[in-house]
Design goal:
Elements (H helix, E strand, L loop, with lengths): L2 H4 L4 H7 L9 E7 L5 E4 L2 E6 L4 E3 L10 H11 L8 H5 L2 E3 L5 E11 L2 E14 L12 H4 E2 L2 E2 L2 E5 L5 H14 L9 E5 L7 E2 L2 E2 L7 E5 L3 H11 L4 E4 L5 H12 L3 E7 L3 H5 L5 H5 L5 E7 L5 E6 L8
Helix pairs in contact: 7-8
């Protein structure tokens, strides 16, 4: 396990986890719930920590269960002993760690007028392991280039397949530039801190040398702000869905910027039924749609469609 992840566990568990062996680059998520077994998600399987043996096993029998003290210690380590400094992040339901790992938090919420005032009694954690797959989008990039420019592009997949990972890598490649295309100025509106994974404003992921980030900002507002302030050639956003998102994208496109975005959908049929995207698709605003899926061997593969929603690759 990576060092920065080990150091958020209580000392007694840290010593055990240091001895645990796991297949490289397979850990995706760790779920911590008070009084429940600690679950490690690897390659679509659940594994349980057996403290007596210091091993991860598939059986729940005698699995280690997280205590109240365990989780309190972890929250202190995650927030560097200063919950106040991360109060705004926690109101959004997560904290981004060094290395880009993202810790989802749940507990007791105090609300006022539809706004979260505070989050306390945090006894549920979801550790999402950051893993940059540099180069995963390199075979896609040639299909996105159009006469020394770029098509407006959507990355589409069901949850958990990797559309944000592919979006991030495409941003990195286009920001840095290549033999075929000069590096491009890219503005990232990272509402959920999943693209750049900023920690205290500093990106933890490699997003290229010509990328600017607006972290934790509402997408619809952020797109227009960056359009005015940073003069981007490409605006990148994650998880498009609302009417306001689509209106902001249209304005950005009409102002001369390209849009790179991600959308949840299982296939092209479901995508075409998305309520607020439907009109943009009918107007052929997206020159490329990259549909990602997981093959039987677990590897990702892609299909590319043009503005007519016809498959070209």
């Amino acid at each position: 396990m990576q060092e920065e992840l080990l150091h958020i566990f209580p000392l007694h568990l840290r010593e055990t986890l240091q001895k645990v062996t796991m297949k490289e680059n397979t850990l995706e998520e760790i779920r911590i719930r008070i009084g429940q077994p600690v679950i490690f998600h690897m390659e679509n399987e659940e594994w349980y920590l057996k403290k007596e043996t210091g091993r991860l096993e598939r059986s729940q029998v005698n699995a280690y269960c997280a205590t109240k003290e365990d989780i309190k210690s972890m929250v202190k380590f995650i927030s560097s002993y200063s919950l106040y400094a991360y109060e705004d992040e926690m109101k959004r339901g997560f904290i981004t760690m060094q290395g880009g790992h993202r810790i989802g938090v749940a507990g007791q919420v105090v609300m006022d007028g539809g706004k979260v005032l505070s989050l306390s009694n945090i006894y549920f954690l979801n550790i999402r392991v950051a893993r940059e797959k540099r180069g995963c989008a390199k075979d896609i990039i040639p299909y996105l280039i159009h006469r020394n420019n770029i098509y407006n592009t959507l990355f589409v997949s069901p949850p958990g397949i990797g559309k944000t990972t592919y979006l991030r890598d495409a941003i990195r490649i286009l920001s840095n530039g290549s033999d075929r295309l000069h590096g491009m100025k890219i503005s990232i509106i990272d509402e959920r801190s999943e693209i750049a994974a900023c920690r205290q404003g500093i990106p933890q992921n490699d997003i290229g040398i010509r990328s600017d980030v607006l972290d934790g900002c509402l997408k619809s507002f952020g797109m227009l702000l960056m359009l005015r302030s940073m003069a981007p050639q490409i605006i990148a956003v994650d998880e498009i869905g609302s009417r306001e998102d689509c209106r902001a994208m249209e304005q950005a496109i009409y102002s001369g910027s390209r849009i790179f975005g991600t959308v949840h959908a299982y296939d092209m049929k479901e995508l075409s039924r998305k309520k607020y995207l439907k009109e943009m698709l009918e107007q052929q605003m997206f020159g490329r749609i990259v549909l990602l899926e997981k093959a039987e061997n677990g590897r990702r593969r892609f299909h590319i469609y043009d503005e007519n929603l016809e498959k070209i690759c």
